[in-house]
Amino acid sequence: MNTYIKVFLVFTIITLTTSCLKNTDPQPSRPSDPIFIGTLTGKINLTDAGGVLQTGVSVHSGISVSLSDFSGKVYTAVIDSNGEYVVKNINTGAYSSFTVTKAGYGTVKHYPFSLYLQANGDTAFQNFYLSQIPTNNISSTQTYTTMAGNPTENIIQINGTFPASTEKTSVVTFFSRPNQTSVDGTIGNYYTYFNEEGYPAGATAFSYTISCSNFTRKDGWGYTSGSTVFFATYIYGPSSSYYNPNDYYFPALSNNPIITSVILP
Question: Where are the alpha helices (DSSP H) in the chain?
């Protein structure tokens, strides 16, 4: 089970090389860069909410793959029954977004985005993973401050429960911004997060602690003693989670989070 707290790691996206395709920190083509025309291809891998790869004849039906440029033109991929997609006759350079969707799964969207080819007719390869959106929701959550550790310090304790599942269960809690009175898992609506990935099948409870000093120290998260922090806790599908230029995204979130709050000591 892996634990992350605002970890800036690129989610597993496999790039093969006859050419180079970058989807983090892309740079627009400079006027001196040669413009090549080629093909973008790869495979869309689907997993259940626990991260297990799904297979079968019809599992890849209904997937949409599109690439948009800054003028608003949209390039749509052709996708076969194995989830392999192809976008033909595409130029090198910067694009506004690359989006992969399927109903019931977390949408993966990289923006901006740059395509690099080494010559006309070259092919760039990029695979993606989409997680099924969890149907279970967090059952209960308790959030409170206490003293713990050696030496002792003020901590925030977050405990909760969720329904037992035959799949692994992953939990994420989003923290509100300083002076913000609401929070959810939408980018821009939270300051940071804490997540636990992969509670084993059959598990029904989660628990983690966070030092209050992370919130209130001078080089911390900008809170002050006596301020209220709000928390939104979800079950999430880990396979769709990915890093984009400014943050880590969790697009496969359960529908109904539980909201709690504490007053910082």
Answer: 213-216
Cβ-based neighbours of 57, under 8 Å, separated by 6 or more: 81
pLDDT for position 149: 74
Token couple for 138? 């967090």
pTM over 0.90: no
* H or E segment to which residue 33 belongs: none
- Flag whether pLDDT at 1 surpasses 70: no
- Bridge partners (DSSP) listed for residue 79: 85
Q: What angle do CA 179, 183, 187 make, to 5 degrees?
A: 105
- 151 φ, ψ (degrees, to nearest 5): -70, 160
Record the tokens describing residue 176, joined without a space: 């509100």
3-state secondary structure of 53: strand
Closest CA to 173 of 138, 213, 129: 138
Per-residue H/E/C for 177-194: CCCCCCCCCCCCCCCEEE
